[in-house]
Amino acid sequence: MDQETAKKLLVEGGTFVFLGVPQETQFGIDMQCWNTEEDFRGIKMIPPGLHYIHFSGVSKGTGDVSPRSGFMHYFHKKEFLVKMWDKDTEDMSKEEITEESIQRLKDNLFNLDRHLAPYPYEIWQKWKLLTSQIPAELAAKLSPENGMIRASVELLSMTDEERPRGVKSTASVESQESAEESTQVSGEDKEEVAGQSTAKRAKRGTQEEREDAMLPDLKPAPGMSMRFTEIPRDKYPPGSTPEEITKHYLDQSYSLELMIAQHDEPLHIIGELQFAYLCFLIGHSLEAFEHWKNLVILMCSCDDAIHKYRSVFFHFIRTIEIQIEEMPEDFLADIVMNKNLVYKKLREFFRTAYVSKVDGRLLTMIERFKDNLTDKLQWDFTGLDADEEDERPVIVQLNEAE
Asked: Which residues does the UniProt record annotate as the domain AAR2 C-terminal (predicted)?
């Protein structure tokens, strides 16, 4: 960085002190990661704003790397944050550092300074773009209750009462049904009732549902799960007619509005998209990747909302463009080779922009985004004026009740 910026950050930048970190531990801030040396004590000259601190323990004997853990923190000017390493858990200690200990470190800052690595300022401009819509309160709202974002979350078994929609396990339901039937019938009638019961169970769900029911039901340990906004399962308002249901499945603006309503302001939905992406890209969270993907699919499935929330979709284009540039190559290859939903939904989004006659600056951004994807990644977006073979509507004739 230039001398003027360096002097400014020395005065205004934040400091993160991480005491007791073993040598060769993987430690990083934002998109930069290193293996620590013996005298490592933390990071200095951190630009004020939101940052993602992350780490992975490394086994001395085998060199195995533990799943990544980390947390988001908004550094204010001159903030001095101190954390400790826990040797027993090979993780960041949960104990709070006393104000007295922090003050001693501040008083000894001259000697501590040489053990602090400077913030990698060359990534700062790109990092600001990736986090442009994530205020401190939104990051705290979406993070797990315990504040730690982990690639590997501890899972616990669910009781019957905790199962989705209160459904008991297949084994317990079948056992209960058999017991009830045995008390009600006897002799030859048992065989007939047993056959009826088997038929009922066969109709209870699809093959996939029955297979899922055989798997153990697990839930994240308390305080460890992400707190993303739930994407609505019902994509249409209660009491909708068949025609309205069809409309809401084709144009999912209603679902997007329900999610936006759960935020303090509309642009926070873009902040959630950015947050989920960073938890996947940096935090290695597959849960975050699924949420990011589903959010992209949802926003690409809207028509009316493009006009109502122009600012949201303007920032959606800016965000998804920089995100795709940073995405690992194997994920990009999967998008194109398998023509997965992200690729298909981007085609649908571009087609919707033309059909719904988006104009002005937003249309210019959409055109540029589409052209950049084609030039840099050779993604094919030709033939947007024609429906894909598997996207053509299926007409079903309904016989009216006599």
From this structure: 228-381
